[in-house]
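Submission checklist for the structure archive. All mandatory fields must be present; incomplete records are returned to the submitter.

[x] Identifier: Methyltransferase domain-containing protein
[x] Organism: Psychroflexus sediminis
[x] Residue count: 136
[x] Sequence attached
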Amino acid sequence: MPLNNIFIRLKHKHRNASKAKLIGDFLNQSKTIVDVGTVSGGLANYLSQHNFEITAVDITDKTVYRDITPIVYDGYRLPLENESFDASMLITVLHHCPNPEQVFDEAVRVSKKKIIVLEDVYPSWVMKHLSWSWIL
């Protein structure tokens, strides 16, 4: 495994646990989950280690976890069946989308029960760009 991937995994370990704790109560009674905008795959990996069936989706494959291979899609229409997951997760992804409403609508289409959205709020332009560099 490249040293860069090891660094990313270590850097994100605490962050993934924190995100999972924030959304954990919303995942109750959800077994199958689609992670739209998985990026490194860290949260998907964390949740899959805690007995959730995760399908990762993104517009490119930037995952650093061996067990997470995202479905790469065009950013418009998820290549998934209607109501094929108990829940969809949109975790700190919508602010990166040129058309966040369409991404949200697709998450609704493929979910049976829940849509979980967690977004970043930036107090300044500097913090916004620091957040972007953190996930790259």
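[x] Structure attached
Curator remark: The chain has a mean pLDDT of 86. DSSP finds four helices and five strands in the chain.
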